[in-house]
Design goal:
The chain is of the alpha+beta class. It folds into three domains: 300 residues, cca-adding enzyme, domain 2, CATH 1.10.3090; 129 residues, Beta Polymerase, domain 2 (2-Layer Sandwich); 42 residues, no CATH class. It has 26 helices and 15 strands. It has a seven-stranded mixed beta sheet with strand order 5-6-7-4-3-10-11. The chain has a two-stranded antiparallel sheet with strand order 1-2. β8 and β9 form a beta hairpin. α19 crosses α23. The longest helix has 16 residues.
Length: 518
């Protein structure tokens, strides 16, 4: 039984009920923007399966005559051919082209030309930049195309740099492509002839929707491939070959750099139509253990009244999928997705049972140290991302609580200020709250109803704090104009002015100053 079928069986009733309503939109939340996940030009047909794994079958776009390639790239390919070489597009571009997805990044592998000769040919089109001489990668200035040599990689040490690289311009494509991770990424495309080179059966695997290792005995050479498989599964809705699942269980992600892990996590969160599929694969293969803050969510119980869907792990997977629906392609998408993943990191240590009910008081605050540890392990240098995600996690309960408790305009303005200090908005917090609410199977969530979230969004909009916090209208210069001498007492005066501004909503600095200092 495939991993997605086991995931479906584990949560079958929950998934089935939610899928019936999946296309619905929050009726009262027109400002919650949603992303269209259908890939450009992709054609699908359902295959009759109801689980979240292989829910669509790819139809190849074989009738496409002209691939979306810049004319200059075709001209370079012809020059390479005239010099006795053969330019073959490799990697993800070929996969995406066959899927009918708009393909952007082009990697060109040049056979039949030694590196100096290739450099000379490319030099006729402009300055040649060496991107990675150790891996034989060249680029023409102003052209976003990587040109590389066929090569053999031999693993000689730990880490992604622990390879002995041998360039061989005469290496045939079948041998050169054996170093690639998956069959769907091991195809080539001859730009001049239109021929698809497919020595490892990648096209057939695309057709049936299966992820399979190109060379099983070499798959473990780069442990990052385990996370890549997870993001491809989430991104394309493809099944995973049982042998590949077994190979993944033996990987050691501990030798990977934070930077490489972050890149794949980013793709898993932003490119996956259902990120839950990728994370469930990490759980099934045991790779989730390398992310202890996520691993800790598995098996943590929740009160059935608020979370009939199951434990914190199941809830988090559903929240991830809901958050993915609310991404809009903007800069905040990654913040939203990491916040969705991390929002309940505090529940494992705060969950307890009392009077027959399961509670987790203060889990939003308890989770902050875990968020910082998790994100720091992935990308410690990005302090802005960490601060933004922590702010959303800390306040993710606020939308529902504000409405329930009848929060004042002052409370809304103060919250907007706090979020603004972390460079996030009330609108983004609202999106997280909607994802959190719809990531459960309560009756209102299944009906796509969240009145509290709608009221919170409407109030923030009416108070003009939806996109940013209030700006101070009383500044130091206003105090100086009144004859006050600068000093530490300015801070106390400005704080009182800010408090009055948030309480009243007034924007007139003189009106505020008269009431603060007379």
């Amino acid at each position: 039984m495939a991993c997605w079928e086991r995931w479906h069986l584990a949560c079958s009733s929950m998934i089935t009920r939610k899928r019936r309503l999946e296309g619905a939109t929050p009726s009262g939340a027109p400002h919650i923007r949603q992303k269209n996940h259908t890939p450009v030009h992709t054609q699908f047909t359902t295959n009759g399966q109801t689980g979240p794994k292989n829910y669509r079958k790819v139809l190849f776009m074989t009738d496409r005559e002209d691939p979306p390639i810049q004319p200059i790239v075709q001209t370079i390919a012809r020059s390479i051919a005239s010099a006795g070489g053969r330019a073959i597009i490799v990697g993800g571009w070929v996969r995406d082209y066959l899927l009918g997805i708009e393909a952007k990044d082009i990697d060109m592998e040049v056979h039949g030309l030694p590196l100096p000769r290739l450099e000379a040919v490319l030099g006729t089109f402009g300055g040649v930049i060496t991107i990675g001489r150790a891996f034989g990668v060249l680029r023409v200035k102003g052209l976003d195309v990587d040109f590389s040599m066929p090569r053999r990689d031999s693993k000689i040490a730990a880490g992604h740099r622990g390879f002995r690289v041998e360039f061989d311009s005469d290496l045939d494509f079948e041998a050169a492509s054996r170093r690639r991770d998956l069959t769907i990424n091991s195809m080539g495309f001859d730009l001049l002839t239109g021929e698809v080179l497919d020595p490892h059966g990648g096209r057939a695997d695309l057709d049936v929707g299966v992820l399979r290792a190109t060379c099983p005995e070499r798959f473990a050479e780069d442990p990052l491939r385990g996370v890549r498989v997870a993001q491809f599964a989430a991104r394309f809705g493809m099944d995973v070959d049982p042998q590949l699942i077994q190979l993944m269980t033996g990987l050691d992600l501990g030798e990977l750099s934070a930077e490489r892990l972050f890149v794949e996590f980013e793709k898993l969160l932003l490119k996956g139509t259902r990120p839950s599929v990728g994370f469930e694969l990490l759980r099934e293969t045991g790779l989730i253990r390398f992310f202890p803050e996520i691993d800790a969510l598995i098996g943590v119980p929740q009160d059935e009244k608020w979370h009939p869907e199951g434990d914190v792990w199941v809830h988090t997977l559903l929240v991830l999928d809901e958050a993915a629906r609310l991404c809009d392609g903007g800069r905040d998408d990654l913040i939203l997705m990491f916040a969705a993943l991390c929002h309940d990191f505090g529940k494992p240590e705060t969950t307890f049972e009392e009077g027959g009910r399961i509670k987790s008081h203060g889990h939003n605050m308890a989770g902050l140290k875990h968020v910082e540890r998790f994100l720091g392990r992935l990308r410690a240098s990005n302090k802005l991302l960490v601060r933004a995600v922590k702010a959303l996690v800390e306040h993710h309960l606020a939308p529902a609580l504000f409405v329930k408790q009848g929060a004042t305009p002052k409370a809304y303005r103060r919250l907007a200020r706090k979020l603004d200090g972390a460079n996030v908005s009330m609108e983004l917090l609202t999106r997280l709250a909607f994802a959190d609410h719809f990531g459960r199977t309560t009756p209102d969530a299944l009906q796509r109803e969240f009145p509290a979230g709608e009221t919170f969004a409407r109030t923030a909009r009416a108070l003009l704090v939806e996109q940013e916090g209030p700006r101070d209208v009383v500044l130091g210069r206003h105090l100086i104009a009144r004859g006050l001498q600068p000093g530490v007492h300015f801070n106390a005066i400005l704080a009182r002015c800010r408090e009055l501004q948030d309480e009243t909503g007034r924007q007139d600095p003189e009106w505020i100053l008269r009431r603060v200092i007379g």
